Request: fold
Amino acid sequence: MGLRNWLFQGRERELTHAAEKRAEAVSNPKRADVRALVGILDDDPSAHAGRLAIQGLAAVAEDYPERLRPVVPDLVVATSVKGPIPDHRGTAAAALRNVVTAHPDSVTQYVPAVDESLREEVAATGAVTVGVTIDERTVDALCAVLSAADTAAARETLEELRVHDHPAVADAAERALADTSDADDRFGTTPP
Reply:
């Protein structure tokens, strides 16, 4: 067994397929096969192909966030430390933020799951394990997702985190709350 075969657990065909789908998404996000990319996330136990798939989904989310509305539940799962690609949850969170910023109603029913992902991420700040730290990009994106959802539960979480000991967490929550307040001021609304 060669090194490459050992590294990728004999899954070179799947890795090649994922690389092709990612390349298609990057070069032409309007025509990317979103379902195929999500399927790769679900089917890749090694996360090598999953990393490529989430990068493809993130490329689509940048310019065509509406194309990812049907796969918001998959993106929410991918933001979790327990998700299919825990090392790339920041990329998943950034993609989710792009979708939710354009379509806030697409995440409302998933606020508890986003809240759980955010709390898992923040819990890393109190971890005893050496070298375990929060991914600030993930925290920032998940706070923005909760801000866009603008539910009472989302605001409660952000209010709680704005006084967190870790400055990156407190700052992200503060920015997210400010964004929510700015939206309320612009549209003359109050949160539900």
Remarks:
- The chain has a mean pLDDT of 85.
- The CA atoms of residues 82 and 93 lie 14 Å apart.
